[in-house]
Design brief:
Radius of gyration: 25 Å
Number of domains: 1
CATH topology: Maltoporin, Chain A
Helix content: under 10%
Distance between the termini: 49 Å
CATH architecture: Beta Barrel
CATH class: Mainly Beta
Length: 698
């Protein structure tokens, strides 16, 4: 199946590539030799004129995905939009309200431990979350209000901080349909969705308000989900140079989870693949945040300060092992996490003109404080009574520091960019239960990371880049002892690559990379937690192509291959052994066609088609086992007339039988004795589903 699925995935890209080059031939000639490089937020756009190169990016594979790519294929949630970024793939094995499992560049980032995520100017990752370090849930956003995503791999940018191990994603918000929009959707498995949005006509798309209600019965037992969310953002010009952006969000969800099934039970027909061993799994989550951004821009400098406040709660109940650890009461685990986060980011950027007019420097400051209440308890499968309290703690965390970024152009074809980042992190924790009740401890540490990028542009449309970055990942606060110097996971990233921009709307990159970690983290099913493992190494290459040659066609294609292995031995792992759960190959293609089909009652009738292909290579599992590959196709079709839009979306169009989670461990389900050897366990991926939507804009 692996080879056949890969052939199918690659063949599915040919129509997109053919359309890309066919439309390239009829694209308008460029009006000049200028091309744009994505500018940093709050900074003026850098424009290259003639042969003079702009300030280099931080990496060859750094990209910004705009609305054309984000809206090309259908997406259920804002989280799904992240898969448009090259190398990113998401699965969701514990219910629709839990944060997605993220794979990126050879990292099984679990729920965010290796991927720094920002949305609207606020951090999404949780510090020291009970379920996993860096837990990042993006369900509070709707796909309609995400304007763009900056995808920055590695740790090459001084702005990248904690959790930027595999890279960073920065979601900018905006709503691009002026006026009032109402959308009603209904589909498979009792799915209902209601969306309302408003953006003032003639104003900026950064000023908007939107709300969403969603509910579904799920595609099997214990898969129901409900959520409600609201987002409001205003952008105001206070003077010619001064502007203010204010963002507020609120979100709440409740979801069920079917958990895992033994693969041999599915293959033998002992259980239906959509059934569950434990119908009591699931949880709920809520989030509220407030962000304000003040910008001051002039010819001499630009300045921005962004304070934020975030409240996030999470309750999870799950059982991965049945009755293995406790034959009488079961192994059900309940995790609670209640976090309050506040902080700020500030930066000032000024022209420097050491070698050219495009030389500049940026100085940034940041601070973040987290206050967390968390617990983990074992619950009886009989009456939900607490049988054991494993964690009950209060956690405090602070991250304060600064960065410096410098970009110079010593020669017309040569650009150099580099900087340094300083982080001071402090932690405090207090145990509230068990034998250690009342014990408090604190620790503190610092991290200094250097960044450097060199770009050589021999041709107007092509450049070569080499990048280095020194990053880190912070530890779980509860794991630290009194007075301990904080043991950061040290991350060193390297990348060499090529970029091209033909001036007709087609851009692309090809890069080879390596990332080294002195220690890593992996999921342990028996404790339902992320545990520390020895040092690891990722080596691979990434290729991506984006085409926007005409107003009616958009396409993006990416392929990433990574070999992820241990370079040290320990904790049951050997040097050279593949990391568990990490896929070697991730392939993704998103495309859309939009054309006017004719006139109806004197108004244009517009038609639209969108589709995506996703391929996930086989994942290595513990105990020298291998998982299944995944190939999925999503598609959409729509018509719009006089502000009325009718659309049909299909997810998993080919109705592939796939598993979004695969594990290997011992268990005891269904009254059977404990398995003496590790067994394969899976969570079943969603079958084909349809969603019909009617949208009105006035």
């Amino acid at each position: 199946m692996s080879v056949r699925a890969l052939k199918f995935a690659v063949s599915g890209l040919f129509p997109a590539l053919l359309l890309t080059f066919a439309s390239h031939r009829v694209a308008a000639e460029p009006t000049g030799t200028s091309a744009q490089v994505p500018a940093d937020e709050g900074a003026p756009v850098e424009i290259r004129v003639n042969a003079e190169a702009a300030a280099p990016r931080h990496a060859a594979s750094e990209v910004v995905r705009g609305r054309a790519q984000l809206a090309a294929a259908p997406h259920r949630t804002a989280s799904d939009l992240m898969m448009v970024c090259p190398g990113v793939l998401l699965t969701q094995h514990s219910g629709e309200g839990k944060a997605h499992q993220i794979f990126y560049r050879g990292f099984d980032a679990e729920h965010g431990q290796d991927l720094e995520i920002w949305a609207g100017g606020a951090p999404v990752n949780d510090v020291s979350n009970i379920h996993g370090q860096g837990y990042a849930d993006v369900h509070f956003l709707m796909p309609e209000v995400v304007k763009s995503i900056r995808c920055t791999p590695g740790s090459y940018d001084p702005r990248q901080g904690d959790f930027a191990v595999a890279g960073s994603l920065d979601l900018k918000l905006g709503f691009d349909r002026p006026g009032a929009t109402a959308k009603v959707s209904a589909g498979s498995f009792g799915t209902r969705r209601y969306f309302v949005g408003y953006s003032p006509p003639g104003g900026s798309d950064e000023t908007f308000a939107a709300a969403e209600l969603y509910q579904t019965d799920g595609f099997g037992p214990s898969r129901a989900a409900r959520r409600a969310s609201g987002v409001a953002q205003g952008s105001f010009a206070l003077s010619k140079q001064l502007s203010l952006r204010v963002l507020g969000t609120a979100y709440a969800s409740r979801f069920d989870s079917a958990g895992v099934l033994r693969l041999d039970d599915i293959e033998s027909g002992a259980v239906d693949r959509f059934s569950t061993y434990d119908p009591r799994q699931g949880g709920d989550s809520s989030r509220a945040q407030l962000v304000a951004e003040l910008r001051d821009s002039s010819e001499r400098q630009s300045f921005a300060i962004t304070p934020y406040l975030v409240r996030h709660t999470l309750r999870l109940r799950q059982n991965f092992t049945g009755f293995l650890a406790d034959p009488a009461n079961g192994d059900g685990v309940q995790q609670l996490n209640d976090a309050t986060t506040f902080g700020f980011r500030a930066k000032v950027r000024r022209p420097l003109e050491l070698f050219s007019k495009r030389d500049h420097t940026e100085l940034g400051f940041f601070g973040r404080a987290d206050y967390v209440k968390q617990s983990q308890r074992r619950l009886s499968a009989v009456d939900d009574a607490v049988t054991r309290e494993e964690v009950s703690a209060r956690v405090r965390a602070a991250d304060v520091g600064a960065y410096w970024d410098l970009a110079v152009q010593p020669l017309p074809q040569l650009g150099v960019r580099g900087g340094v980042r300083f982080d001071g992190l402090a932690y405090g924790s207090e145990d509230r239960g068990g034998k250690a009740a009342g014990q408090a401890r604190g620790s503190q540490g610092t991290h200094v990371g250097a960044k450097a990028t060199v770009e050589y542009r021999p041709l107007r449309w092509a450049s070569a880049l080499a990048s280095y970055g020194d990053g880190f990942r912070s530890p779980q606060a509860r794991s630290l002892g009194e007075g301990e110097k904080t043991p950061f996971t040290t991350v060193r990233s390297y990348e060499v690559g090529l970029r091209f921009d033909d001036g007709f709307g087609t851009t692309g990159s090809l890069a080879v990379f390596q990332t080294l970690l002195d220690a890593d983290l992996a999921f342990d099913a028996s404790s339902a937690r992320i545990e520390r493992v020895p040092g690891t190494r990722r080596t691979g290459f990434a290729a991506e192509l984006t085409a926007l040659p005409t107003p009616w066609f958009a396409s993006s294609v990416s392929f990433t291959y990574t070999r992820a292995e241990f370079h040290e031995s320990g904790q049951g792992y050997r040097a050279g052994e593949l990391l568990p759960f990490v896929p070697a190959c991730v392939l993704r293609s998103d495309s859309s066609l939009s054309r006017t089909l004719g006139d109806v009652w004197g108004r244009a009738l517009d038609g639209r088609l969108g589709w995506s292909f996703t391929y996930l290579g086989r994942r290595p599992l513990p105990f020298a086992q291998m998982g299944h590959d995944v190939f999925l196709v999503d598609a959409s079709a729509g018509l719009e007339l006089r502000g009325v839009q009718l659309s049909l979306e299909a997810f998993n169009l080919l109705d592939a039988r796939w598993y979004d989670g695969e594990f290997a461990y011992a268990s005891s389900f269904g009254g059977r004795s404990a398995s003496l050897v590790p067994l394969r366990h899976v969570s079943v991926g969603a079958p084909r589903s349809l969603l019909l939507s009617l949208q009105l804009t006035i």
